Amino acid sequence: MPLHEHLLELRRRLVRSSIALVLGTIVAFAFHKPILRFLVQPVQEFLTSPAGQLIFTEPGEYIGTAMKVSLLAGLVLALPVVLYEAVMFVAPGLTPKERRYLYILVPTSLLAFVVGAAFGYWVLLPPAFKVLLTFGSDVATPMIRIGPLVGLMLQLLLWMGLSFELPVVIFLLAKIGVVNTRLLSRFRPYAIVLAFVLSAIITPTVDPVNQTLVAVPLVVLYEISIWLSRLAAPRRR
Q: What would the pLDDT profile of 200-217 be if each residue is shown by its tens digit?
């Protein structure tokens, strides 16, 4: 294609993706209350407000939080369309072998992100919030605002989802020859230290138990990455 036709094709696919995002956001906003209830479920037992609910202290705090959650949920709903348009745009410029890798890596990356977010929601968040909201409760009563809480939870889920992308990224890098099993094995001690540093950044608490809950899966993911790089190396050669 000439450059002009490429730009027209890009514009068409961006318009379709934007329409899907807008429709997904509208649908998510219609169901924002169940989504918010699902997000705050890990802290439900610690709510001490008179109505047993989260609070907001600014007039626009709740609607701003609802819009933020609706936009992210809308992006999740529109993600199949967005990925389809992106793949269809770049696929004609790839070789059959590269297209095969692309068709495998895209759903695998999505699955890894979902598994990481699920791990953060069901394994990491409950003990983390238990420490945060019960420590010093005999001195001060926690009155939890919905805005900061939802923002913190979305941040944690995002980081955990991205962390679980490590094996996919390492496999791709091993396929194209950027890394190999020997290099990754030699880097293992530094990776363990880096995993605990990242866990201290990701977790909202400073206790070693919650940091270990994040660091150990990161180390396991790194070991899986070494194994995947070993699988990728012979085929590359």
A: 888 877 778 788 888 999
